[in-house]
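Quick illustration, no need to memorize.
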Amino acid sequence: MIKIAHEAPLDIFDEVQRYTDYDYALVHLLEQNPRYRDTFERAIKKGREVILDNSIFELEEAFEAERFAQWVNRLKASWYIIPDALEDMSLTIGQCQDFRRDYPRLHGKSIGVVQGKTYEEIKRCYQFMDIEGVDMIAISFDYSYYTVSVPHPNKYVSWMLGRVKLLGDLMRDGVINTEKPHHLLGCGLPQEFAFYKHADYKWLYSLDTSNPIVHGIKGITYGSEGLWSKESQKLHELINMDLEDIDIDRVKNNIQKFRWYANGSHDVDSVL
């Protein structure tokens, strides 16, 4: 089964952690928020698996490389995401080469993110990451290429089916290294993950998304078919939200539905 992490406001972090398989940290919040930092240091001490992200989705550019490397060694997370550049294959490859050259002995295992504007660029970036020897390869949920490969009036449907198609095309072309773990970055529509239950996708190791949390906070309950739109709110903007302003039951309902989409069960006993 694919491992699931949901970013959550600090007031419900411990409760959400009961229903997830690992934790997902944003480096800029480690630097800005002492409570956030303490929360993840505590998770590490508990033996939780943690991925440290370079915060590119939140900041729209990767966290500065030297400071990021310092946080990698300070937090001692299980995995860290090498700085990348949104949809820029050449810059992503260059940044990956520079980072691995400048910081060859960091704590944890490396994750390389595939970037590009076309299928050929995405494929070339994937092949570079594989040959470069990163420990895990990540693929994002919202490449603009998806709206070209699967045109649809609803861009969230394009994102959902676009990533499904991209993974299928990469498998068809013999590009996917099935011996290497892969991470799915983010989520447009939660029902996307029902596509990956087949054994052909056993190389998918993990995913991260705040989707069930953000929608629960916004008063939106997942239906049996999922969602057909997506709130634009980013979770890091809600990180200090008060517990009294959160419908925790709605959030937990969404988490359980999400687990059903991804792994075929509402039952969360396996992670408790």
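DSSP finds eleven helices and eight strands in the chain.
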